[in-house]
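Objective 1b: paired records.
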Amino acid sequence: ISAPEKPLADDVDFKILARATSGFSGAEIANLLNESAILCARAGRTKITMKDVYEGIDKVIMGPQKKSRLVTEVDKRITAYHEAGHALVAMCLPACDPVHEITIIPRGGAGGYTMLRPDNDNVYVPLSKLKSDLAMTMGGRAAEEIIIKDYTTGASADIRQATSTARRMVAELGMSDLGPVFYGSDREVFLGRDYAASHSYSEAVAAKIDAEVNRLIREAHDKAAELIRANLDKLETMVRVLIECETVYAEEVKMIMDGASVAEVKKALQLRYEGKKDSGEQSSVSAESNAQSTQNEQADVQNPDQTAKENSDDMPQTADDKSLGE
C-alpha cells in the first residue's frame, strides 16, 4: 500500500521486507519507508535501496543510531565478542532463525545487537526451537567468559530474557521434567505500600520450578559455550570484521561460517556498498538525462518553426538547391 508512492531500487526484496516487518502496523510500515526515503535523500540518491530499508526497520524497532556516543576500545571489543557469540551460536543451531544483521553501533539503549529474522510464518514453536533460542541468548555471556575471562553487565538483558522464557516453559507450557502441568504465572498484588507476588502453588513446587528454570538456563549456557569453543576461529574472524566494519549482514555472516578470511569478507562488504552507491549514482544520472531529454522535446514542440529552420540550416545544399536559388 505504501511502497508504490516511493521510488524503490531493483534490489528491494518485498519477501524479505514482509518477514522483517511481521507484526508491524500500517503506520509503522509507512514510517519505516519514510525513514528510508529520508536516508536515501541524505545520501544524494533518487531511489531507495535495500540498505535504506534495513536502516529504516532498525530505526523503528531499536531507535536511531548513536554514532556520536563515545565508545572506548575496550567496550567496542567486549561488544564485538558478545554479539559475535550470539550470531555464532544461532548459525550453528538449525532450529534458530537465520541471522539478519550484527552491529556494534549503539542504538537506543543497546551498545550493539544481533538481529534474527524468521524465514517462515510458523505460529507454533517447538521445544527444540525454544532450547536453541535459549542457547543463542546465552551465547553473548558465554563468549565473554571464554575470551575475556570475566563477566560484564552487558549480558543483563539477555539473562532477564532467558530467565523469563525458561520460566514460561516450566510453569505455563509444560516443557520440563515437571510434566505438562500449568502452574500459572506470578501475579503482583498491591498490599498498601508495595507490590507482592502471589502464586497458586506451594513453596515446595516453587522450589522445583526454580530448579527446572536453573537447569534449562545452565544447559543452554553450556551448549553455547561448547559451540563457541568448537568455532573459535570463526568467532575471531567475525569479531575482527565487526571492529573494522561495525555492521555485518546475513551474506557476510554465511561467508564467515563457510571459512572465509577477514580480507574476503571485507571485500564483499566493500563491493556491497560500492555497488549500491554506483546504482544510486547511475539512477541520478539517468534521471537527469531523462529530464534533459524531456526539456528538449518540450522546446521542440513549443518552437516547431525555429526547429525546422535550424535543421534546414544545418543540412548541406545539393546542386538542385543551388540552381533553384539562382
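Objective 1b, second protein:
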Amino acid sequence: MRGTGADLERLKLEGVDALLVGFGESLGRARVVERALAAGMELPNLIHESSVRYSSAVVGRGVQVFPLAHIGAGSSLADGVLVNTAAIVEHDVVLESGAVILPNAAISGRVCVGRDATIGAGATVLPDIRIGEGAVVGAGAVVIMDVLPGQRVAGVPARPLDRSKAGDGKASVSAQAPALS
C-alpha cells in the first residue's frame, strides 16, 4: 500500500487493525512504522522458524527476521527492523527503528546500527562500531570504523563514497584509506 497517514486512519475505520511493513528499503521505514502505530495499527512480528534468537534479545513491533538469521544474546531490535536471510546479528547489538540488515551480513558484538540505516548483503561490521542514522554500507564491505549519519561506504576496508561523482552514476570509493589506530 502506498499512501498517507490519512489512508492508515481510513483503513482503521474500515476494520483493518494490523499492518505489515513489507519493503526492504530502510529510507523512511521508521517513519512508516511510526505512522502506523500512531494510527492505532498493530504491527505483528514475522520471525521465521529457522532463525535463531536468544531469549535475552529484545524485539520491538513489526520486526521481520528471515530464514536462517541469527539474533545474538542481549541484542535489541527496535520497531520495524528487518533482518534478512542468513544475516548474523551478534551479542549486544542495537538495531534502531527501521534498520535493514540484508542477506548474509555479519554484525559483530556491541555494534549500534542507526535509524533507517542499511547494511548491504555480505557486509561485515566489526565490534564496537556505530553506523549512523540513514547510513548505507555497501554489499561486501568490511566496516572497521564508525560510519557517519547519512554516509555511504563501500569496499574493504569500507571507505566513504566520493559523492562529487554521483551525477555520472559512477560514484567511486575515496582513494585515501582510513588510518588505523
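The CA atoms of residues 88 and 106 lie 5 Å apart. Residues 174-181 have pLDDT under 50 and may be disordered.
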